# Entry
Amino acid sequence: MLQRFIHSARMNVFESARFYYWLLVALTSYFLLNRFLQKLSYVYLDDRWTELKIGEGVLFGLAYGFILISAWLLRRKIPRYVFWCWGGIVLIFLINEFRFAWGNPDYSLMESLTKSQGYYTAKFTMPLLFWGVWSVLKNANHYGGVFVNQLRVFLTINAVFIVSGAVFGVSLFESYPLSGRWGYSGLLWHLTFHCASYGILLIYLLQKEHKDWVSVFLFVSALLLLGQKAGILYLLLIFMLMIVKTTLLRTIILISSVVGIFSAPVWMPIVVGFIPFWEKVYTNHGVWGVISSLRNEMVESIWSEINQNLNFFDLFFGSEIRFRRRIEMMPLDLLIYFGTIGLFLKSSFLYKTISHWALSIPIIVACFAGGIYEAPLCMLFYFIIIKDIKQS
# Structure
């Protein structure tokens, strides 16, 4: 009886693409509902219901538990590099937790797991292990396609709300409601999820032989109207790597973009004069504060702090800076949390996982202006798309 139960659990839960499809549906549904209610409560009740994030954390924790068991059961099928990367980063986290606890009498493991380094490490490593499991499940492409199409329907509807919000000036649809900053994110609270999901889906649609131009137009519009520089970067990279076919034209676009950035001190004062929010940022933080969304100042602050106490262990294992302080530039965040070893492990994982340049666009964007690498749901969605494109 016990053996039959274990066999059934393996087939219908831990080694079942259908089970993980429903798990993804549950995670995504709660995530989207949570962000909609947070935005609604903030705009109309002046209070973000952030308590809903507790349920989100519990759901992701349960999902991580299922993925861990599946990874163990499927360990002979999953590529070794997945375990090396996942295990290496988890080991770095454990080493750093011991180092931090050893010199800190107020250390709390529970606080670390729910709010600090452990929480961040779980968000970062869960998608890595999910990729290993998902890549070897039977019928994963079928269920992945169903999930992608369902999310695409929602994002298409949300893109209509984004365009409507921009045309009619609906405050509920703003990316940054009640802040004075321009941008529209539709039904959901402003997050990395918007840029990453629309960018990934746009890549997915453009690589198809028969293209849905209505969806392409809506997703391009959404990326333009979000009011985020990451959205513009997505569109620029998609144009360069997927639309433009000649090396010469790509080189011209790249050089022009670099020249445009470094000539910002000339044209920036004129442009920000039309946008009060960015004019204020420009006045207080200068040209590079506007371009980097103050990431330059965060880099300076963190480097100044690290440079005072930098040692051998910090260089290789990081963790001189603890989460929630972050730069939101993937290579730099990897260095401060997991050191050069963590950066090497993650880079190796991405090199083996991503098959061509178009699929690397979300990672390139994350190196400059985004946090897809610390948004588990976006990373799960990204890996499902990668597998689908590889098999098509």
About this structure: The longest helix spans residues 17-45.
